[in-house]
Amino acid sequence: MRVAVAGGTGLVGRHVVEQLSAAGQEPVVLARSRGVDLVTGTGLDAAMAGVEAVVDVSNVTTMSRRKAVPFFEAVGGNLLDAGARVGVRHHVVLSIVGIDRVGHGYYQGKLRQEERVKDGRVPWTVLRATQFHEFAQQTCDRGPGPVVVVPRMRTQPVAAREVAQHLVELVLGPARGMAPELAGPRVEQLVDMVRALPRAGHRRRLVLPVTFPGPAGAAMAGDGQLPAGEGPRGSRTFEEWLAESVAREG
């Protein structure tokens, strides 16, 4: 089966492509490097020829609602319209646990993405997952100076590879609507995750914990980004992932 992977060159997308191939499926990468612009739709119809299912793991690096909402609006609409034209039977989207409880700008974009899928003509599944183990380093990379500002946030991080494995299992099955939330094996404090990076061989930074103001900050510091019910859980802890990443780099 031909399965289109929107964002197939990204962190999770690469694993989705790899695991689809291992399962005997034919992944079709939708990315600018492959001649497809998901925002404008350029090259999308040609790439979607013969596609029966879609996994959308596309992303934009921003915290701004003004950038996130138009991006996910455009990409979601283009993928769903193209899918309807070629008769896609299943459209799977990766979303984030807690986006309806933590109302910052990027999450508003993800909520709009979910709305587009629910309102579309293609049978759909939305998988909300917690932050990936890589989120700690991504937080550091947002501030290039000697001080990194880290929000006080509880999370239950999960391995990107395990997220991809779950997405592949979902896309090869029937549409499920809102799938049970996926999380890692253990709750962590983001500040502790960031502080562990230098001890594991990453560049040393001064970590400045901050509490975001208002209800969003309270939700982040509390249970707002933890799974709200039962669901699948990954097996790989942040500590294990960090040790393995250091071993690979060394």
Report what the structure shows.
Helix 4 links the parallel strand 4 and strand 5 (124-129). It is built from nine helices and ten strands. It has 250 residues and is an alpha/beta fold. The termini are far apart. The chain has a single domain, classed as Rossmann fold, CATH 3.40.50. Helix 1 (11-22) crosses helix 6 and helix 3 packs parallel to helix 4 (105-119). Helices cover 41% and strands 17% of the residues. Strands 2-1-3-4-5-8 form a six-stranded parallel beta sheet, sandwiched between helices. A two-stranded parallel ribbon has the order 6-10. A two-stranded antiparallel ribbon has the order 7-9. The model has no long low-confidence stretch (mean pLDDT 93).
- Terminal CA distance: 39 Å
Estimate the strand proportion: 15-25%
Order of strands, main sheet, comes to 2-1-3-4-5-8
Compute the CA-based radius of gyration: 18 Å
Q: Which key features would you list for this structure?
A:
Rossmann fold; 250 residues; two-stranded parallel sheet; alpha/beta; 9 helices; six-stranded parallel sheet
Summarize, please.
This protein is of the alpha/beta class. The protein is 41% helix and 17% strand. The protein has a single domain (2-249), classed as Rossmann fold, CATH 3.40.50.
Q: What topology does this entry show?
A:
Blueprint: E1 2-6, H1 11-22, E2 26-30, H2 44-47, E3 53-56, H3 65-86, E4 90-96, H4 105-119, E5 124-129, H5 135-141, E6 147-151, E7 154-155, H6 160-171, E8 177-178, E9 188-189, H7 190-199, E10 206-210, H8 214-221, H9 238-249
Parallel strand pairs: 1-2, 1-3, 3-4, 4-5, 5-8, 6-10
Antiparallel strand pairs: 7-9
